[in-house]
Amino acid sequence: MQYSLGIVMDPIAQISVKKDTTLALLLAAQARGFKLVYFEQSDLYLSDSSAMGSGRTLEVFDDPQCWYKLGPRAAQKLSELNVLLMRVDPPFDNEYIYSTYILEAAERAGTLVVNKPQALRDCNEKIFATQFAECCPPLIVSRDMQQLRNFHRQHEDVIFKPLDGMGGSGIFRARANGENLGTILEMLTDHGNRQIMGQRYIAEIEQGDKRILIIDGEPVPYCLARIPQGGDIRGNLAAGGRGEARPLSAEDRLIAARVGPSLKEKGLLFVGLDVIGHYLTEINVTSPTCAREIDAAYGTDIGGMVMQAITDRLAQKI
């Protein structure tokens, strides 16, 4: 049986072929005989109660000079697709939420949506991690300036960050002397109008911010450590960090085992955990990355692993 797979993603013309995890997923799906249909977020709509998309057939190639070919645009019911991958990068704004409502309508009509739309809405990538308190560093989520200042006074060296950022954007370190603390808090909270997160600084960031990929509740046995460069505090590759693939440590596996069952229960089939030292810092549910770097280092096929999990789910529906 040939399955059909729709991909909702940022413009494919702008991706980095060498690093893009979405391309790895598409290549794996195509290799397994999936018919691919391409959508951007603006292509999704509701017609009466039916989830629709203005889609284009898609072929992909592992070629940095020519990595995709699109067919003509055509309107179709999203329920005609066996599976839809939602791979739009944050920011997680109202437009993203509206897209999850449309995808949820397709889900009700029988399409497998990865990751589950309700879970995408429920699981903020910063706050969701706090459900696993024993895995997390000391932290605070607040927009109250005095509470945030008290947290800094208690822990002295603190990372403050927005709740809806990605790629290391908007992350600040406030050291013990409190230099620029007021400015940092005013900017991030919009003078007390926006919730932010503070986490005690974790010195092990110098050894890397590890991205651990979880597929259907189980960890890939290797991770990518994103190591800060040039005096920056951020290991994110988008912020100039250097990637180094490594086997999971025993402690990494314990964190994955603690979080994995909850991810599976919520319908979060492909997820990225961020781990610094002994601590879980974020759970990335929207469009986790780093698969291609791990594949290149260890010969894994993470895209194929995700597609196998999807095929298993589809087989259960027949």
Topology summary:
Elements: E1 4-9, H1 21-31, E2 35-39, E3 44-47, E4 50-60, E5 68-77, E6 83-87, H2 94-108, E7 112-114, H3 117-122, E8 139-142, H4 145-155, E9 158-162, E10 172-174, H5 181-189, E11 196-200, E12 209-215, E13 218-227, E14 242-247, H6 250-265, E15 270-276, E16 279-284, H7 291-298, H8 302-317
Parallel strand pairs: 1-2, 1-6, 6-7
Antiparallel strand pairs: 2-4, 3-4, 4-5, 8-11, 9-10, 9-11, 12-13, 12-15, 13-14, 15-16
What's the average pLDDT?
Answer: 95
Tell me the overall shape: globular
Q: Termini separation (Å)?
A: 11 Å
Low-confidence spans: none
Structural class: alpha+beta
Number of strands: 16
How much of the sequence lies in strands comes to 25-35%
- Alpha-carbon Rg, integer: 20 Å
Helix content: 25-40%
What is the N-to-C order of secondary-structure elements (H for helix, E for strand)? EHEEEEEHEHEHEEHEEEEHEEHH
* Biggest sheet overview: 7 strands, mixed
Number of helices: 8
Description:
The protein is α+β, with helices and mostly antiparallel strands and 318 residues long. The protein has 8 helices and 16 strands. The strands form 3 sheets. Strands 1, 2, 3, 4, 5, 6 and 7 form a 7-stranded mixed β-sheet that branches. The chain has a 5-stranded antiparallel β-sheet with strand order 14-13-12-15-16. Strands 8-11-9-10 form a 4-stranded antiparallel β-sheet, with helices on one face. Helix 1 crosses helix 8.
